[in-house]
Amino acid sequence: xxxxxxxPAPLLDRLAALLGPxxxxxxxxxLEPHLADWRALYRGRTPCVVRPGSVAELAEAVRLCxxxxxxxxPQGGNTSMVGGATPDEGGRxxxxxxxxxxxxxxxxxxxxxxxxxxxxxxxxxxxxxxGAGCLFPLSLGAEGTATVGGVLSTxxxxxxxxxxGNARDLMLGLxxxxxxxxxxxxxxxxxxxxxxxxxxxxxxxxxxxxxxxTAAVLRLFPRARESEVGFCAxxxxxxALALFRRFRDxxxxxxxxxxxxxxxxxxxxxxHIEGGNVPLPGHAHYVLVDLASSRPPEGGNTxxxxxxEAVLEEAMEAGEVLDAAIGESEAxxxxxxxxxxxxxxAQKREGASVKNDVSVPVSKxxxxxxxxxxxxxxxxPGIRPVPFGHLGDGNIHxxxxxxxxxxxxxxxxxxxxxxxxxxxxxRDLGGSFSAEHGIGRLKTDMxxxxxxxxxxxxxxxxxxxxxxxGLMNPGKVLP
Length: 479
Ligand code: FAD
Ligand code: 2HG
Ligand code: ZN
Fold this sequence. Notes:
The protein is α+β, with helices and mostly antiparallel strands. Helix content is 36%, strand content 20%. Helix 8 packs antiparallel against helix 10. The two termini are 31 Å apart. Residues 38, 73-81, 84-85, 98, 118, 140-142, 146-147, 149-151, 153-154, 156-158, 207-208, 212-213, 344, 436-437, 440, 473, 476 line the site of flavin-adenine dinucleotide (FAD). Flavin-adenine dinucleotide (FAD) binds at residues 38, 73-81, 84-85, 98, 118, 140-142, 146-147, 149-151, 153-154, 156-158, 207-208, 212-213, 344, 436-437, 440, 473, 476. GO terms for molecular function: catalytic activity; FAD binding. Its cofactor is FAD.
């Protein structure tokens, strides 16, 4: 271990004795994947990575680190969009990876619950639910890497919030290792449990600042027996919203996802993603609508296909939808979804971009997109707005791509101004500067402005009560 990284030698020896070679990484090559975030905004240092193989091992490791005053950074799949899971540059923060705590402890198709450990990858949780004839509905682009502990700790949203809610709504109980090493077992699988403060909700969205989520009871749902996906070119942002309303008014329960994409973003997909075919090229605005039902398909002029076609026809007559493609097979539906899911990757490949994960009341999404695009164009002529995302939740990724030909570093140097410009519009529309990705390290300096006064004071008092030494994920969430 390099000697400029001050982990007390006795602590390292104790951790090594406790965890063994699989549970404690110190080789620089092994540390490497844990040091930087997906967006490459941050690169930190750590003296070692702790990878406990059981809850008891984690609890003991936390006790040892607490006694030595050593700060800890929980890490799941390290897909955070806000630098939440990486250590700082000081070299003292120990990364704790939950990757080895990845068992499914129980699946109960009658209670409709799954008890899963924190390191279980989201896709594996979905697959296990499907294997039991059920659905775990949380779905997002990083689901092949993100973990149960990570999605709960960020209260992730994703593509199906419009129907099933955020990660918080999919959780019934938690098991947590507290900052002093105590284990709290709150793995109850109850639909009703009003017994004082709902402690489990304190840890959801806390981004690892209050303790380690080690396992959770997740809610399962009936699996879809019928689904339809429509990919539509729409006239403008208002038409996208009007189309959402048409579906909702006809059959709110049928809408599993309603996603907006700009022509620019779809163009990046076609340009950068292998096999990136777009069925309706050349439009300025697109929507992907996903309908699903757990009822057996009815066929004829009932069922989801009939609903999809009827709504699209009405919307075409109203001039809202300009053209539409319907997925005719599972493969076609997946290909249409791919256009949306690959947006983050396609945008990354196009060059430097500034992300704004913001939300407004659903009715204000057209105004958000239009006003912030115009304001950013005034700030940096030639800037390319790439808004996309969860229109059905009022959560638009109001992202901005560097002007063609502009130096990427020079563009990123304006990140603060760009984020402020978007946030001014968001504030005016009664929205939030952080919709689903969380605060992490990226947005801590906005907390005082947006959540100051009693709200931030209360958060700081909770933090001080649960983690009095301030050892859990320092520098994240709270300023
Ligand atoms: P990490 O990135 O490892 O950690 C995230 C935070 O949680 C950190 O603060 C970390 O310290 C903490 N943490 C992790 N595990 C634990 C634990 N067990 N106990 C306590 N704290 C813990 N997010 C959305 O909401 N919706 C999307 O649609 C979406 N799409 C994405 C698409 C891509 C391509 C990528 C790269 C990210 C996307 N995200 C999305 C970001 C999202 O935050 C993560 O995908 C996910 O929620 C984080 O899971 P993770 O396991 O990678 O957590
Ligand atoms: C998504 O919805 C993610 O794809 C990532 O939340 C958004 O890249 C982004 O800004
Ligand atoms: Zn998103």
